[in-house]
Structures are given as C-alpha cells and as structure tokens.
Amino acid sequence: YTPKHPGLFMIGGMIKPENINKALASIKKQIEHVQKHLFEVEKIERSKILARAQVIFSKQTCEGTARKWITYETSGTDFKHDEKYIESINTITAQDIQKVAIKYLKLSASTFVVLHPKKVKPKIDKNILKTATPKRGARFKTMSHYKQSSIFTLDNGIRVAIRENHRLPII
What is the residue-wise DSSP string for the chain? Predict the structure, then answer.
C-alpha cells in the first residue's frame, strides 16, 4: 500500500532493553547497506511476486474487497488503484530502490521512539546513529516527552498512548 500523501517509513520491533543499542546499530547498518549496494534482481523479482499475491489474496472475500475499496476511497485514490499499483511494482529496478533509499532513509531526518516500562531505563548510545550531517543526528523521544498524550490501559492490560499530530493525514 502506498499512500497518496506523504507518509511514514517505520521500522519496529520488540526487543529486550539491553539489546536496544545492538538493534539501533543493526538498523543503521542495513540502511547504509541498501544505500550503497544494489539489491539482487532475484530478490526484487520475489518481492514483486509477493506484492502481487498480496493484492490478489486481499480480495478473496467480499469483506477483503470492501476493505480495500474503502481504504482507497479514504486515501484519495480509486477502486482501480490495485491495477496501477501492480503496474508500478512491475517497473521497479534495483537502481530505483537504491535511489529512494538514498533520498528518504536519512538518519539525520529520523526520529526514534523507545517505549519502555517505567521501571526500566534503557541506556541508549545516541552516538550509534550519529551521521555525517553537521546539523544534527537522529532525534530520540521517550514517553516522558509525550506528556500531551492520553494513555489508556485496555482490558487485556496493554497500555496505549495516543497523541494528535496534524502534520500527516493519517489516523
């Protein structure tokens, strides 16, 4: 799914607090690898097949088709978006992926959010994500920066933090 409006690229995971720095270093390494090296054609072709299959399988039921159409309607596209999407996927090259990675996957423009239990204070080595950009490196946020957030606890015990952000047209 590719939104019509600017969106977010998110990398997420659940890791033990003692492994946060290893995870951040690994994320940085992978981003740099994608920016410097072309993907193998075989991997790209496999990804194209998977993407086309996901489009087809998402419409196996009336519910799935309706969900797709309403998603497209609310995102400003039309119900024929799948056809255009598949056409665009078919044209992707390794050079396209590298070009996009260089343009958009910039650590200097990233924000990292670490949500953790109150009792745990992970030691984040912010130098891991330092970049050659002189203005600034990656920004870090912790729950303490989200005082304007509403925090709810669901019946199953999961805590959910909600904060309005009008910069992007997403919910």
Answer: ---SS-----------GGGHHHHHHHHHHHHHHHHHSPPPHHHHHHHHHHHHHHHHHTTSSHHHHHHHHHHHHHTT--TTHHHHHHHHHHT--HHHHHHHHHHH--GGG-EEEE---TT------GGGG--S-SS---EEEEGGG-TTSEEEE-TTS-EEEE---TTSS--
Cα 150 to Cα 129: distance, rounded to the nearest angstrom: 29
Higher pLDDT, 89 or 70: 89
**Phi, psi (rounded to 5 degrees) for 120:** -110, 130
> How are beta strands 139-142 and 150-153 bridged, if at all?
unpaired
Mean pLDDT computed over 24-48: 93
Residue 141 has pLDDT above 80, yes or no: no
Give the angle 62-65-68 at the CA atoms, nearest 5°. 150
Say what the pLDDT of residue 166 is.
Answer: 66
Tokens 């996957």: give the residue.
105
Rounded CA-CA distance 94/43 in Å is 10
Q: How far is CA 83 from the centre of its chain?
A: 23
